[in-house]
Amino acid sequence: MRISDVQRGKPTVLQVVPGAKDDFGPLPAMTEVEIFSSGLESEALLRVGKSTWKIEGANVHHQDLLSGVLVRALPRVAWVAAREPRDEKLAATSLVVEIREFPSENVWPQPVDLGVDEKVVEAVRSKRKSLSSIGDVIAWLEERVLVTDLGGSTRVLLSSSPNPQADQRSAFRLYGRGWMVDVARDVEDRLLVTRVIEAKRTQSDDERRPILLVRGQFRFVDHTVAGRFRGTARSELDQIVGEAGSYLAIWREYNKLERRSIQRRARDFGWLSYHSRQPLADGRWRFHLKDDERLEDCMRALEESESVDLEAAAIPPAELTEPIDVDADQEDSNGRGRIFAGECVGYDRRRLTLDLRLPAGNDEDRDPPPDTGVLFMSLGGDRTRLERRRKAQALIASAECPMPQLGLLIEGKVVPERRRRGEKPMSAAAREAFGGEPTGRQIEALKVALNTPDIALIQGPPGTGKTRTIAALQARLSEIAEDTDGVSGRYLLTSYQHDAVENVASATQVFGLPAIKVGRKRGQTEESDGFERWRQERVDAVRAKLAAADELPASEALRRCRDLAVGYLHAPSRAEDVAGLLTAVREIAAPHVPPGVTDRLLELAQRLRSSAAPHGDADPDVEQAIKAVRGLRCSQAAFSDDGDSQARKALRRLQRLSVVTQEEEALLERAASWDIDVPPDFLPALAELQGALIDRLTPDERPNSAPMVSEDVEHALGSTIDALREAVRSSRGGVEAVLHEFLDDLDNDRSGTRDAVERYTVVLAATCQQAVGYQMSLLKGENNVFETVVVDEAARANPLDLFIPMALAERRIILVGDHRQLPHILDQEIESDLDSDVSAKTQEMLRTSLFERLFAQLRERERADGIKRTVTLDVQYRMHPVLGDFVSDTFYAPHGEGFSSGRPPGDFAHNLTRYDSAVAAWVDVPIGHGAERRGQSKSRGSEAKWIANEAHRLMTERPELSVGVISFYSAQVNEILRHMEPLGMTEQLEDGALRIHDSWRTTRSDSGKLTERLRVGTVDAFQGKEFDVVLLSMTRSNDIAADQPKLLRRKYGHLMLENRLCVAMSRQKRLLIVVGDSGMLTGEQAAEAVPGLVRFLKLCGGDHGVQLHA
């Protein structure tokens, strides 16, 4: 704390002036000073640093006070409380000095560590809600208790403890700015903070326990379990990570390999030289290329790439010209300042031009590319991504993250735990988040997550409600923290990709506020999270409330006047129109506001009318034509009355003026001659023509400059609205007025509303990478630590990306996922290298998700220490019970993770012809209809054509049903999309790619919710998705004789990957249709290679299935 914050010791305040010198120089207030006597001459001196002044009291009284201080010669501290003159730029001619004296002073020569444990941390957090970490608490204590000496050491104000306990030795109390800290030695002879007490302002010093001034090297240190364990963990991790087979070390090396692979690809591409560039009107930049030896190779590489980002610079970067050093840190890799990079969206070989489209953002803040320079494969995004991974892995491996035991847990080692107070899993808010009564396993999941000493894993098989479990967990965590700590931005909700984050964030609301997603996906111009849905729900609720209320005239007047005022401020108009507006406001407000307010409105309206410039006489033919055009009947009911005669009148008057085109005249003639009793089909065109003619005929009476907002008018309108607000507040309609204001903010100030929610929301959401991105740093500052981190779809995240949010967690990490579904994806080039360079064990460690690794390790530990850390949700709600049982029995029950179904069969009726009541269907397309087309990616036209036609039939029969079409091969996806094009279900883009046509993209579910109607893609595009009906293309159909185990892979390919099959066969709600060659599923080899498909074919032959032939 500052010296001027000292409030203990005997106070003396005196005013001094310089003796020999004329002034004290520019000495600022609150500066610490030393006051002492010169010795032989007994002169009073004041010293600051190397400067010393002879001083004396400003008068006799102050001289006596000064002499008394020097005579007593007690230990003291002193500072400048005030100065004259006050302007610190001027030299001080007198000082007011405050002195605090103490009975004695001690010096403790050895450094003194004052330990802070979990109990103290929680106690301080309960009083200071902005402190989010142990580091924050220590900094807060040091800032309030320790006084820095002029010489750089520290001082404390200390007394014996007022209430020492029998088991406390050497107990004492420290006095700080507004707070007191009790300290005692523990059984291991360490000094620990036992209590932090807020000091009462009226509290006086106890003479029986005098406060002493103690000098020494004092500091508060982390004595939590994590803090004490940090050193031990660091030593142990250093040894483990240095050994072969360390999980953390293997992924560190993988990150280096990926960096090398990216740089190698960039080097292979090289760079293109350009001699000029220009911005285009649509936001693109066009570069004019030099025709050099690199041009042909680079152009060929661009043709072979689906998408590539290029960066513009004056010269090629060092990564392309210097040897690759994968061991070097990348701290300075962005030292080139802002980069100019964008997606290559076109090039012209003949004209030697190349176009870049920049990512969405603020173009005003973006520097243009160099006038001349080079274009090369952009490494900026990869640099940032890999560096974030490297830092997170290093923090965990060195035990420097907030949870120092994390690295040992990942390595599968035993760590000490601190048992905490058990938290109850359920509350009203949690139950509301579940949307009903949760299952026993969901309650258990909350209990495990809340009370884990470090990490908890929740496995969520398909449709078992993991998203709602996450929402309920966020609600309970926030309730627990509400009374003990600040909750704003306390929890991080994250996942490996934007779609997954947006999905879980949109389902989360805590204390009535949504989770706010930080960071956007590339090219996204608006946030996509729970905010917009939350805002619309609030708008609907407020409107419903107002519609049900008996609205009083005052609140109605307020709303109408406010709307008129906003319209004027946004679009000021001519004086005559403003006068009319003021008159309307006066008439509406008059019954509710004081006469002085309406008198001001009347006065302004009269002044504006008198000042309005008179306009020349209007052309009577034009006025008649305008009246006739305004009389056109553009609605069906109005036109049936006299629409033809009004059209004839308008046509006749317009023909005199020669102001209509031939097409417009033909439309009017058609309307004038319409005499059949059928609703006309041209009314929309007639309405559009009416508006165009009124604009064309109305004279432009605007002055040379656009009207400006009048300050007098703005003030009068503001005063009227303020008076109406006061009238509403004092009436029974005050609640309605507040609701109107809230509705106005929600409707008209979306960015302001979002900013407010962002400041106060409990849960922040971001992808793993953007959890440490720039936008997050703006919200969290330098101390980017979260009490709890929840990761959804954790089994899909690359462990290096998963390390990033895990390294931010201080109290608990909750991983939610399913290792029976899709795993993380490795870089194909690196994976190929690893197959030949590393052991099978290392390959297995790289291909096994961190979620699966921890799930197995922690489940094993449960048997040893009895602490529950893993839960598998066991009731699915997504699909028909028969299909749910099939998925459970096939993919989960063999591992002890089976689940049941929680909804009755009647909820899943589809009523589709051809399938009757079946929920499982096999459509046989034998090899005689055409075998698979071989290549790197497989396809089969006969299956694709049948699937396209059947999807069209089903969606035409039941437009409200959603349909998912899944294949294991991208080539088959393209084949299906191609067969859908003649049916109008897909459309071709400029680059030749096919996409779902807009008319087939969305539908309304039974509940009225807008949902995706049709999706066609590989399995990877379907995890986390669900559809009423799923058509699964088996694709593989061949006559390969798999008489050897190694030939099974050639015959069945991706069908043998159990986790991919699990995802593909668990996306449906009502009906799963598998289309394929049943001949591939006969014999023992099929039962061994693809047991899931064999089992499904058998299901289709039972009571709940059907087998068809294409």
The radius of gyration over CA amounts to 38 Å
The tally of beta strands, per DSSP, is 42
> What helical percentage do the residues reach?
40-55%
Q: SS-based structural class?
A: alpha/beta
Number of helices: 36
Distance between the termini: 83 Å
Question: What does the largest sheet look like?
Answer: 7 strands, mixed
**Residues in β-strands, percent:** 15-25%
Q: Low-confidence spans: pLDDT under 50, at least 5 residues?
A: 331-335, 701-705
What does this structure look like?
The chain has 36 helices and 42 strands. It is α/β, with parallel strands linked by helices and about 1100 residues long. β35 and β36 (about 995) form a beta hairpin. The radius of gyration is 38 Å and the shape is globular. About 40% of the residues are buried.
Topology:
Elements lengths: L9 E9 L13 E6 L6 E5 L2 E7 L2 H13 L3 E9 L9 E8 L3 E3 L4 E5 L1 H10 L6 H12 L1 E2 L5 E7 L8 E7 L3 E7 L5 E8 L13 E5 L1 E5 L2 H17 L5 H23 L1 E9 L5 E5 L5 H10 L4 E5 L4 H4 L18 E9 L4 E5 L15 E5 L2 H18 L8 H5 L17 H7 L5 H12 L3 E5 L6 H17 L8 E5 L2 H8 L3 E2 L2 E2 L1 E2 L12 H19 L4 H18 L4 H15 L5 H17 L8 H11 L5 H22 L4 H11 L10 H15 L13 H19 L4 H15 L1 H11 L2 E5 L6 H7 L5 E6 L7 H8 L2 E9 L10 H10 L2 H8 L2 H16 L4 E3 L2 E2 L4 H12 L7 E2 L18 E5 L16 H17 L5 E5 L2 H11 L5 E3 L5 E3 L5 E3 L5 E3 L1 E5 L8 E7 L11 H8 L5 H7 L3 E9 L6 H7 L1 H10 L4 E5 L1
Parallel strand pairs: 7-14, 8-15, 22-29, 22-30, 23-27, 23-28, 26-27, 28-29, 31-32, 33-41, 33-42, 34-39, 34-40, 40-41
Antiparallel strand pairs: 1-4, 1-6, 2-3, 2-5, 3-4, 5-6, 9-10, 10-11, 10-14, 11-12, 12-13, 16-17, 16-21, 17-20, 18-19, 18-21, 19-20, 24-25, 35-36, 37-38
Helix pairs in contact: 5-8, 8-26, 10-12, 11-12, 14-23, 15-16, 15-22, 16-17, 16-22, 17-22, 18-19, 18-21, 19-20, 22-23, 31-32, 35-36
